[in-house]
Amino acid sequence: MAKTDLTKSLLSRYDKLESQRQNWETHWQEVADYMQPRKADITKTRARGDKRNERIFDSSPIQAVELLAASLHGMLTNPATPWFTLRFKEENVENEDEAKIWLESATEAMYTAFNRSNFQQEIFELYHDLITFGTAAMFIEEDDEDLIKFSTRHINEVFIAENDKGRIDTIFRRFKISARAAMQKFGDATSMDIKGIFKKDPYQEVEILHAVYPRSDFNPKKKDKANMPFESVYLEYKNANELSISGFKEFPFVVPRYLKASNEIYGRSPAMTALPDVKMLNEMSKTTIKAAQKQVDPPLLVPDDGFLLPVRTVPGGLNFYRSGTRDRIEPLNIGANNPLGLNMEEQRRDAIRAVFYVNQLMMQQGPQMTATEVIQRNEEKMRLLGPVLGRLQSELLKPLIDRVFAILLRNNMLPQAPEFLSGKDIEIEYVSPLAKAQKSSELQSIMRAIEILGSLANVAPVFDYVNFDNLVKHLAEIVGMPQKLLKSQNQVNAERQEQAAQAEQQQQMAQMQQVAQAAGDVAPLAKALPDEARAVANAEVE
Questions:
Q1: Which residues contact 507 (CB under 8 A, 6 or more apart)?
Q2: pLDDT of 5-38, one tens digit each?
Q3: Which residue stretches of 242-392 are H helix?
Q4: CA 447, CA 441: separation in Å to the nearest integer?
């Protein structure tokens, strides 16, 4: 099949990206062999279901990877707790009660979409790839059945490129699917090669190349599928047959990197940092096992004469020697020092645990620890992962939420926004346990300031400088208190007005009672006054 200009260009770009990635592949393979054997398919080709841990003599590194992946999942995208919320950039709009109600409704709709999809299992796989390879890729596509479908792709499939701002905006994915799946997805667009394979063996795999990149001739005035900001092309890799040409309004992949050097495209991982210690620990464990075997079942010293029969070392075995001689079988002292080897192994394990934050993540409550100390230690534990949060926010969480929000908006799955919110920019606020830990220092500073002001309140009206309404709102925001648990500002103002009116009414009633009481005291005096006046007048006449 003749190649078009488009297919020639895409294959040329793919070849360049493939050559740029070759240096990483051996590194990924070695890391996966020791710490993620189920994904050790980069430079090696193994049969599905084959054993993959035959080179591993100590599983501590694998456990460390699992622990860090589970911790990131629990602290960033925990399904049991809120981990993001929406808000408007303009502060005056944010304070509107109607805007808050709509934001909460939109946020709940997004959580519903996440929970109904396969997001949780796929994001967990992404964390594994991120910790092991330093780079992970998730495909977010619209689905007719589930609305949103998430798919974490193996690093072996992914070839990426950055734009001038250091952001991933181009991805080539070379993957295998069965001929049956290719026919279901692309139909008559498939070549005769795939159709022939499908008739012969529907489950035989074929290679597909998927390219997603910014469209150079994008025209925002046109709104057809062939004119979107990002172009999407599916090709048959073997013969370059065009299967599908479409596009995306947003970049459909999220490609986070754990750590990244300024002159590199692919990320680096804690597994790469720990690899020397992991390899050393593996060799130490192998040696220690051999030493233990030799001590338990040592080599034997056998005289070179008088022993014609084979040496029996099984339990109850009998070996005969001449009576009265020293010609006997003795164990060979190999001089093994198992405690030394075990101590050296533990040193390597400690170094590996430090790389994966095992000691911090496994921190438990001590017998003499107060509840406050437990909270402080947990916050400190999470702050240790704070540097990772910045990159994951920009390369994982933000594009992930933006993509899901746009899909729900296009499918009318979000509540109708009030007219005054039209054109207002929305931003994301992260309220995950890890994000809250980053704000804990601010909370402690505020509480300390309140304590200081409280001690000065007896000598000066210092609380006159504090806006308590804003203080309550800010504290609720820091600790992640849901907005629906707080009264709206209009409701608070109405209740305050009602309380003020009731107080004023009570004051007026009290004043009226005082006037009535005073009038009752003056009345007898007013009656007696004329009689006294007459008595005085009569006395003067006399």
A1: none
A2: 888 899 999 999 999 999 899 999 999 999 999 9
A3: 270-296, 338-355, 358-361, 371-384, 386-392
A4: 10
